[in-house]
Write a structure and sequence with these properties.
This protein has five helices and six strands; from the N terminus they run αββαββαββαα. By secondary structure, it is of the alpha+beta class. It has one domain. The protein starts with 6 loop residues before the first helix and ends in a 7-residue tail after the last helix.
């Protein structure tokens, strides 16, 4: 079951994220589809329907993440929690590379970048194009 998110709560989530996907940092104005609130911990896992459990997400990140909260680390085979925008700091887990890739710095970064397909060819190309316009990486 999907919980309804009020317009006011949607605005709060969007403003807090400054219009950027809280997973890959793509600005909403640079996306083809509008960003949407994501339940960091899905309803079916007992996640709350409030600002503490919502993150602004681009369509790509939201669709790849789904209701997942963890994944298998491709380097170690261990089960690792995904990046949590409300409790984790992006720069502790990821770094923007000059070639348009997002580099994972930690196991959490690895599982998130892999599951959400941060470095899929089309996504890297978009970031390269944005970099040429001085719109990537974000400030």
């Amino acid at each position: 079951m999907t919980s309804r998110i009020s317009a006011a709560l949607r605005r709060e989530v969007r403003q807090r994220a400054q219009g950027r996907c809280e997973y890959c940092l793509l600005a909403e104005e640079d996306a083809f589809f509008p960003h949407e609130p994501d339940h960091v911990v899905a309803d079916k896992h007992g996640g709350a329907n409030d600002a503490t459990n919502l993150a602004l997400s681009c369509l790509e990140c939201n669709r790849h993440k789904g209701s997942d909260i963890a994944s298998i680390d491709p380097d170690t085979g261990a089960l690792v929690a995904l990046f949590h925008p409300r409790s984790d700091v992006w720069t502790a887990h990821f770094q923007s590379a000059g070639d348009g890739r997002i580099v994972a710095l930690t196991p959490t970064g690895r599982v998130t970048a892999t599951l959400l397909r941060f470095n899929a060819q089309a996504r890297v190309e978009v970031r390269r194009e944005l970099a040429a316009l001085d719109r990537w990486p974000p400030p």
